[in-house]
What does this fold into?
Amino acid sequence: MIIVTGSVTARAESFDALRDASLAHVHRSRLEDGCLLHSVQVGCENPLRLFFYEQWRDMAALKTHFAQPGSHDFMRAVREHGESSEDIALFEAVTIAI
It folds into this structure.
């Protein structure tokens, strides 16, 4: 499984537009083959920060996701409405049963 994390901080005047674009991206992504989990949360310490957490079946599914037109549209919204963002981090993980 591939875990993806990242965040973007919106400009105050465009937070609503970026949140809406983020939610649309999350809902669209959840329908993609290989998406196990896709979420966005508003930061408690900075309410303009949107944090993304994703789980993908494998790297092939994630690469297909990144190539989707919806992913490109979302990145345009980030550039348009975001003030800053952190690099996306990728982690390879194995589920452990307890």
